[in-house]
From TrEMBL:
This is Glutamine--fructose-6-phosphate aminotransferase [isomerizing]. It catalyses: D-fructose 6-phosphate + L-glutamine = D-glucosamine 6-phosphate + L-glutamate. Keywords: Aminotransferase, Cytoplasm, Glutamine amidotransferase, Repeat, Transferase. The gene is glmS. One of its GO terms (molecular function) is glutamine-fructose-6-phosphate transaminase (isomerizing) activity. The chain holds residues 248 to 615 of 615 of the full protein. It comes from Herbiconiux daphne. Residues 41-180, 213-358 form the SIS domain. Catalyzes the first step in hexosamine metabolism, converting fructose-6P into glucosamine-6P using glutamine as a nitrogen source. It is found in: Cytoplasm. Homodimer. The active site is at residue 363.
């Protein structure tokens, strides 16, 4: 039941701190990740030379976020592919390929068929699922469950943050098995992850501000989303949420891609959400994104920045700044996605739409 919330979606967003905490629960012991479900797989995980993540929609964006962490920590190449594209292109699979499927429902037909294809072609399989005993989980060699609890609203929210959490736990497990990460560094990452639920609580206190913004923007016809590094999949996810809930044309771009085409879309008044990397980011992407903001602002874009507390560099160029608490750069997606989920929900609400049951969509897509 909705328990006093206006929609399942609103309730499920409010449950995100718990979803992340429950996905971590019992899986960190003495600063080390413990995934008993992978106990028998050490040989496989030591031997793999490649990971292919397959998923659809929001689940695929969690995979894109996971790629950055897994490659950084475990030094295994990771590709992310949409399930429905994967099995129609004769992918190169060997017993040293690990195919990781991600699915909230565990019943998405495209993903299930892709898992079956991977098995039939000799790859090893792991699934990240939210629904206990789901078909995809049963088909795979192993499953790491997200413990987000049942997700009822068609738009995936708490399952998304739980998927990223599970991928990060898997990434740390894999780096331990392969000996690619110093124990102290791994322990530091885990403590960062453990600090996320309280930070999500903090982000959720921005909700009234976002409701107001969505109301002002209720007749907007198109919204663009920009991000970089782990902020890039978040831009894609922000755009997907807005399409599916508010029926507004929305597109997400990697900020670095702007001058390769999308900047031509900018005209006076065009709203652009920008997921701004932390100024503490070791890759120094912050300055590059701020300069992207300046470029589009000069062409009249209306900038809605999602930036960490204390980042003053964005202030002169942003029309609105939504703040997120400080987190290690890899963990920021778990925070920056929340305002975008809230924004899509509130904009749909302002347009009088049913946020739990958007038109033409089903919660779990069990047909191809
Ligand atoms: O159940 P799954 O995670 O396999 O579902 C995948 C997509 O259908 C799903 O994430 C979809 O994109 C959501 N409606 C997005 O909010």
């Amino acid at each position: 039941e909705k328990g006093g919330w206006s929609s399942f979606m609103a309730k499920e967003i409010s449950e995100e701190p718990e979803a992340v905490a429950n996905t971590i629960l019992g899986r960190v012991v003495d600063g080390q990740v413990v995934l008993p479900e992978l106990a028998g797989l050490d040989d496989v995980l030591q031997d793999i030379d490649r990971i292919i993540v397959i998923a659809c929609g929001t689940a695929s964006y969690s995979g894109l976020v996971g790629k950055y962490a897994i490659e950084k920590w475990a030094r295994v190449p990771v590709e992310v592919e949409l399930s429905h594209e994967f099995r129609y292109r004769e992918p190169v699979l060997t017993p040293r390929t690990l195919v990781v499927s991600i699915s909230q429902s565990g019943e998405t037909m495209d993903t299930l068929m892709a898992v079956k294809y991977a098995i039939a072609n000799g790859a090893r399989t792991l699934s990240i699922c939210n629904t206990q005993g789901a078909t995809i989980a049963r088909e795979s060699d192993a499953v790491v469950y997200t413990h987000a609890g049942p997700e009822v609203a068609v738009a995936s929210t708490k399952a998304f943050v739980a998927q990223i959490t599970a991928l990060y736990l898997f990434g740390l497990h894999l780096s331990r098995v392969r000996g690619t990460l110093d124990d102290a560094v791994a322990a530091k990452q885990l403590s960062e992850l453990q600090s996320i639920p309280a930070k999500i609580e903090q982000v959720l206190t921005n909700a009234p501000e976002i409701t107001q913004l969505a109301k002002w923007m209720s007749d907007t016809r198109a919204v663009l989303f920009l991000g970089r590094h782990v902020g890039y999949p978040i831009a894609l996810e922000g755009a997907l949420k807005l399409k599916e809930l508010a029926y507004i044309h929305a597109e997400g771009f990697a900020a670095g891609e702007l001058k390769h085409g999308p900047i031509a879309l900018i005209e006076p008044g065009q709203p652009v959400f920008v997921v701004v990397p932390s100024p503490r980011d070791p890759n120094s992407l912050h300055a590059k994104v701020v300069s992207n903001i300046q470029e589009i602002r000069a062409r009249g874009a209306r900038i809605l920045a999602i930036a960490e507390e204390g980042d003053v560099a964005v202030l002169p160029f942003a029309d609105e700044v939504i703040r997120i608490p400080l987190a290690a750069p890899l963990f920021e997606p778990l925070l920056t996605v929340i305002p975008l989920q809230l924004f899509a929900m509130e904009l749909a609400t302002a347009k009088g739409l049913d946020v739990d049951q958007p038109r033409n969509l089903a919660k779990s897509v069990t047909v191809e």
